[in-house]
């Protein structure tokens, strides 16, 4: 009897593997999901009928408590885990700091634009330019939570105006 069951199992396994190789992936995924749910349901029913289901509830309680305790750590590591996930999936990610952090060294700025950035009228004195720059850079400086891009623009505007005054 055991030999007969073993032969039937091997034949079923052979045809199952052949079907698995030839079937479309979405159909295979659907069948595997359905089979997994069916096996879990049968196992839970069997454990409930035999009176051995208590350990499942205990394991769920322990897992829930563990997840609650690890939630702050997971939230702190979330950006790193997200980058790791994207890297594993092969997605290229660019951040604003990589693309827009500073104007390039050869950036051109018109004199009129420089005056507008500092909030000055054309013909301002050197002292007015320095004072306007100081006020703006204190508000926009990256060390005070400002933006590198804006701070660079303000510095470039000051440099252009002072060069035109000399």
Number of strands: 0
For the record, give the distance between the C-alpha atoms at the N and C termini, rounded to a whole number. 104 Å
Tally of helical segments: 7
Strand content of the residues, in percent?
under 5%
Largest sheet: none
> Residue share in helices?
over 70%
Task: Note the topology.
Elements: H1 2-22, H2 25-50, H3 54-89, H4 96-100, H5 111-118, H6 126-140, H7 148-165
Keyphrases for this structure?
single chain, 166 residues, mainly alpha, Helix Hairpins, 7 helices, 78% helix, elongated
In short:
The chain is 78% helix and 0% strand. By secondary structure, the chain is mainly alpha-helical.
Task: Describe it.
Helix 5 packs across helix 7 (148-165) and helix 6 runs antiparallel to helix 7 (148-165). The chain has helices at residues 2-22, 25-50, 54-89, 96-100, 111-118, 126-140, 148-165. 78% of the residues lie in helices and 0% in strands. The longest helix has 36 residues, at 54-89. It starts with a helix and ends with a helix. By secondary structure, it is an all-alpha fold.
């Amino acid at each position: 009897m055991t030999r007969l069951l073993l032969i039937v199992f091997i034949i079923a396994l052979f045809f199952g593997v052949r079907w698995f190789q030839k079937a479309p992936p979405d159909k295979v995924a659907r069948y595997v999901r359905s089979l997994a749910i069916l096996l879990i349901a049968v196992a839970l029913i069997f454990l409930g009928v035999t009176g051995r289901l208590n350990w499942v509830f205990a394991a769920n309680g322990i897992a829930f408590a563990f997840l609650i305790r690890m939630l702050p750590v997971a939230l702190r590591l979330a950006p790193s885990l997200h980058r790791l996930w994207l890297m594993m999936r092969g997605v290229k990610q660019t951040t604003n700091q990589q693309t827009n952090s500073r104007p390039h060294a050869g950036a051109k700025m018109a004199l009129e634009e420089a005056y507008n950035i500092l909030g000055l009228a054309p013909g301002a004195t050197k002292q007015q330019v320095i004072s306007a720059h100081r006020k703006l850079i204190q508000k926009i400086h990256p060390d005070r939570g400002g933006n590198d891009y804006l701070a660079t623009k303000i510095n470039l505007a000051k440099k252009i105006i002072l060069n035109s005054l000399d």
